[in-house]
Amino acid sequence: MRIAVIEDERPIREGLVHILNKISPEYQVVGSAENGREGLILLEEQDPDLILLDIQMPDMNGLQMLKEARERGSMTKVVILTAYSDFDYAKKAIALGIENYLLKPVNLTELKNTLSKIKEEIFVEQRGKNSLSLETVIKDALEGEYEEDSRLEETLLEKYGFSGRKQIYCMYLFMGKYYDSEQKEAELFLEEFREHNPDKKMCWLWREKKQSVFICFYDVKAKKILYSI
């Protein structure tokens, strides 16, 4: 999990970075900033999974930064760090979408529990995104596990331009004993073909047990689609 620390007090900022590096190797600190303006730049450059964000900072405070980040479309997870127990701060922060609200000095156990919970949330969210990949849908279809779902079909159409109601051209390429030795070269060829033929929407699925690759062309606008291979 990639984490950024935005805190104006240097000892606290550096202390948090040190603690995060010690808690778990899975927590990677990608940068730190001392005010909201620097924080916005850091957010844009590094796109962290999580921000530990102080509220009271000079130049631009944490709530102002968070508000602007949300307006820019950032959905990065945020944990607010503050010495203020004023409920008004918490209410404003919650309205902007945060994961937790921790009082300084930060309790180590509470910080660990918060990080662990957020890491699990990110894992679940990412797994959900992966389940909507074309490769996953094709794999399920090949294995007889695909179930029709109107919401899934709408998402695939919106995200990929893929519709099971349109013609789909498929190629099953058996590689046999050359599967392991030639897979990287074949992958490169497919990537280059897709790059040089942007009008041809395609995806592919490697089938290790079958020593083959399943190639799928969709949203096809012409019958002859392989002439330029």
From TrEMBL:
<keyword id="KW-0597">Phosphoprotein</keyword>
<feature type="modified residue" description="4-aspartylphosphate">
    <location>
        <position position="54"/>
    </location>
</feature>
<feature type="domain" description="Response regulatory">
    <location>
        <begin position="2"/>
        <end position="119"/>
    </location>
</feature>
<protein>
    <recommendedName>
        <fullName>Stage 0 sporulation protein A homolog</fullName>
    </recommendedName>
</protein>
<dbReference type="InterPro" id="IPR001789">
    <property type="entry name" value="Sig_transdc_resp-reg_receiver"/>
</dbReference>
<comment type="function">
    <text>May play the central regulatory role in sporulation. It may be an element of the effector pathway responsible for the activation of sporulation genes in response to nutritional stress. Spo0A may act in concert with spo0H (a sigma factor) to control the expression of some genes that are critical to the sporulation process.</text>
</comment>
<dbReference type="GO" id="GO:0000160">
    <property type="term" value="P:phosphorelay signal transduction system"/>
</dbReference>
<dbReference type="Pfam" id="PF00072">
    <property type="entry name" value="Response_reg"/>
</dbReference>
<dbReference type="InterPro" id="IPR011006">
    <property type="entry name" value="CheY-like_superfamily"/>
</dbReference>
<dbReference type="InterPro" id="IPR052048">
    <property type="entry name" value="ST_Response_Regulator"/>
</dbReference>
